[in-house]
């Protein structure tokens, strides 16, 4: 499932949105003749279940949940519209007038297509576009906080590849001077790639194998982590090894800052390392492993919320105790089944 | 024996660099190295020693090996590369020693300068240290003592001194100083050095002739190995077998001579254990242990250090070996042990250390960076924009260690100082038998 490791999760989310658009505009889209908002929502839910690449794929359902939430908000009759564009405002306003007028009528056959197209055009597609926009711009929003958390000549620790962290550091570099230590995991070359990418921008980078984490930790001032999924209790699912780093950080009282776009918010709960996890093939860890000497490798590490100091998302900064608020703004409780 | 002028006295205006004597260039072809190892013993002194002396004296200390060959023309290029590398290593670890990648070729050129400096047994040993063929504290110590015995047998007194003991004491000091250029001397080797010094003191008071002294000294070294390493290992295995019940799940990190013996012994008694071996791919010790267990027919699981969090809930005990135990109760061991200890204390898993008593040290250390050894990673390209860092050792604090299994018993980490105090009465070893002259 996680074959594309160096690509950010953003790509799979974006591609799934574009796929949604394509599905909707396809001629044999399995929609009833005059689809309402609810029909669209069930359609999107079914599509997400179909496109999901396994039980541990969080990013496609997250993005679809967000789309559904935006659709709900845009089509709500209270008229509170969340999007920024004025044009869309007027369009949505026009739609509510149209809907209130069309409710009194039964389904209009000639106008059914135009009605569905109208809904599609004025609600669904703008919703998808808004979500896409949010995702594109998430890095910029996160980077606004770049300078506020660092002092001069700090030493930062990062682990494996994360494009969010990369952009964050590059924007922080403009105002602060710091030193970076990159921990690399034993199996993949992502750590080296990250160090090279950082080094290209004239940052002071040191690359260390994972085993040196304890020795290095006393020198580190802050830890920046990219994340795979943020769970509803504030816990995180991340690259294997981050749990060990967070435990060490707590021992040394080093603050851990988590950077992520809001598309990684996953309204699920986990309690230990095995709730959302998968064993990888033993040959990946050690090509010489046999049945007698089996290699064990895992996909995710679960980090409980007590180890994190701050979450920086494109919707704002949160502590583990308050990140549930973001979930209630971002998603709807009805959509948690996909 | 007179010392060479460039060994100790720094030149005026230059900061003292202890490695000024050796040729600093590294040859990467290790196959060539092994071939020449066989030839290296037999080659006699090559043409002009004087010619080779001067360019080597002018060289400054390299910080990292370069990709170039030994020939004398390229020494200047090596110097400029060296200065570049020195600039890079000006970070927080600039105080740590970095050891060169020597080959037998480069060492031969040193031999040409001073052929009597380092015996060929030690040179082979140092190359083995470099290659990674000889790692692990017990292994290194035993190999060192074997090389020392060989040296003793080949050693011939010069006519200046009649006393074997005093002359050999000087030799011993020299050997140690030179060995420090290759890899730091670990605690076990220091203890054996103290022991041999004690023997030589005793020898000085008796009037044995050269051959008998040599034989006696070799016997003493054998006894040291037997009592402090082999017999100690058996006692430790016996103590540990009482601790660990059948069917427990244990986690082992990297490779330790004691733990390996313990596991093999345990299975020979017919009991079962579930074993997780945590591997350190940089040194390859975990896979060595796994291969060894495989030969004995013992099944185990392999896991990487970053994936350890997954199985910690299933593990009952964690066993590690030691490079040395320090006076303040801290454990010096393979890098990564401290991380494991921290995780163990969070999950409340007992953390056991297996350590013989000859590895106890009087030093104290609090953190891993004030003293350490930098291990050479595989070389990236020369113009990479980041610096690589890789340490060899790790300090685990005493509050993470639950128990130390030694041959004197099961002791907590805080009692290391008391044990050292006991041993000091006997100068770190058992009473040494005074030799009698055979008639």
From TrEMBL, chain A:
One of its GO terms (cellular component) is eukaryotic translation initiation factor 2B complex. Keywords: Cytoplasm, Initiation factor, Protein biosynthesis. One of its GO terms (molecular function) is translation initiation factor activity. Pfam families: IF-2B. PANTHER family: TRANSLATION INITIATION FACTOR EIF-2B SUBUNIT BETA. Belongs to the eIF-2B alpha/beta/delta subunits family. This is Translation initiation factor eIF-2B subunit beta. It comes from Paramecium octaurelia.
Automatic annotation (TrEMBL), chain B:
The keyword Ligase does not apply. One of its GO terms (cellular component) is cytosol. GO terms for molecular function: translation initiation factor activity. Residues 73-83 have a biased composition (Polar residues). Residues 1-89 are annotated as: Disordered. Residues 43-72 have a biased composition (Low complexity). Keywords: Cytoplasm, Initiation factor, Protein biosynthesis. InterPro entries: IF-2B-related (IPR000649). Residues 11-42 have a biased composition (Basic and acidic residues). It holds the Pfam family IF-2B. It is found in: Cytoplasm, Cytosol. Component of the translation initiation factor 2B (eIF2B) complex which is a heterodecamer of two sets of five different subunits: alpha, beta, gamma, delta and epsilon. Subunits alpha, beta and delta comprise a regulatory subcomplex and subunits epsilon and gamma comprise a catalytic subcomplex. Within the complex, the hexameric regulatory complex resides at the center, with the two heterodimeric catalytic subcomplexes bound on opposite sides. Belongs to the eIF-2B alpha/beta/delta subunits family. This is Translation initiation factor eIF-2B subunit delta.
